[in-house]
Design a protein that fits this description.
The protein has 306 residues and is α+β, with helices and mostly antiparallel strands. The protein has eleven helices and 13 strands. The N and C termini lie far apart (45 Å). 26% of the residues are buried.
């Protein structure tokens, strides 16, 4: 059964099984990297925030052996058991002064998002783009996001520059910082420090010392969502570079996190780029890819370059 027939079969079966008063809806959504997905929701009159399931990924489950009935039951289970304690405050979105406290930034790839960026205010950064989203914590550690588009700017009567500048300032306060050595032993040490995301010198020195001659660090934010934007924190980049006594290669693991590697003579950037390209192609979901190559942070210039 091809994808189109699968989608029709799932929708027909769902409409037979969903409870009265609920409505099955599907719409095509443009996601990161201009990926178009069929977003399925089961809507009701109780809440304006319901889980979204992507039929494209459910089709993968079907191809791997799940039956239509099993997939339909999974959809209904997720929908019925999705506990939501908050809803979108649409009045807050109408007013910039109330909305801005929920705004944060993330990085996406410019070339891979040509369609999406026609609708979004953004600031170029090398071959990437800084964009803004509205962040709603629907449960502890569980977030829902809404991209800020040009219609929002028109409503708020503010400039792109002001939007991105203030959202960048707000990002750290909303989401914090996360850094963890790849070493599981050091992560245990880090965790014993109450999971602090502090960038104090003593913590940085401890991490570098424990990680050894070739430390590698995962950097994100506390919820590990859209955390690659923390590569723009030059204060942090400089502090870590000084701690390892080297410039840094930045590996764009995903849009959610980066990996920092000291730029030592025995580290080949060409090999790093080959690894990044291979992992993006084989391991990373298409909508999570940030870039197919590494970036370089210079201690002397306190600057990131291609």
């Amino acid at each position: 059964m091809d994808y189109t027939l699968f989608k029709d079969a799932v929708l027909d079966r769902l409409k037979e099984k969903v409870a009265e008063g609920k409505e099955v809806n599907v719409k095509t959504i443009l996601k990161n990297n201009d990926l178009e997905l069929d977003a399925l929701t089961i809507d009701d009159e109780v809440t304006d925030l319901v889980p979204t399931l992507y039929l494209n990924y459910l089709y993968d489950e079907y191809v791997n052996g799940s039956t239509i009935d099993e997939i339909v039951d999974e959809i209904i289970f997720v929908s019925d058991n999705y506990s939501m304690h908050k809803s979108i405050d649409y009045e807050a979105l109408e007013n910039y002064e109330t909305a801005k406290q929920h705004l944060a930034c993330k990085l996406i790839n410019r070339e891979k998002n040509q369609k999406l960026l026609k609708t979004l205010p953004f600031k170029p950064f090398l071959d990437l783009a800084i964009v803004v989203y509205y962040l709603l914590e629907v449960e502890e550690g569980d977030f829902s996001t809404v991209m800020i588009n040009y219609e929002c700017l028109k409503k708020w009567k503010i400039s792109e520059e002001k939007l991105i500048e203030e959202a960048m300032e707000n990002t750290k306060e909303l989401l914090g910082e996360y850094i963890s050595p790849l070493s599981s032993v050091l992560w245990d040490i880090y965790n014993q420090r109450e999971g602090s995301c502090s960038l104090e010198d003593e913590m940085m020195e401890l991490m570098v010392k424990e990680e050894g001659q070739m430390p590698m660090f995962v950097v994100s934010n506390k919820p590990r969502v859209n955390g690659a934007v923390n590569m723009l924190n030059l204060r942090f980049m400089k502090k870590l570079a000084e701690a390892v006594n080297a410039d840094l290669y930045i590996i764009p693991s995903t849009v959610h996190e980066i990996i920092l590697v000291p730029a030592k003579p025995d580290v080949s950037r060409e090999e790093l780029d080959q690894i990044i390209h291979s992992i993006n192609k084989e391991e990373i979901k298409p909508q999570d890819v940030l870039s197919d190559h590494s970036y370089f942070y210079s201690r002397e210039l306190n600057k990131i370059t291609l």
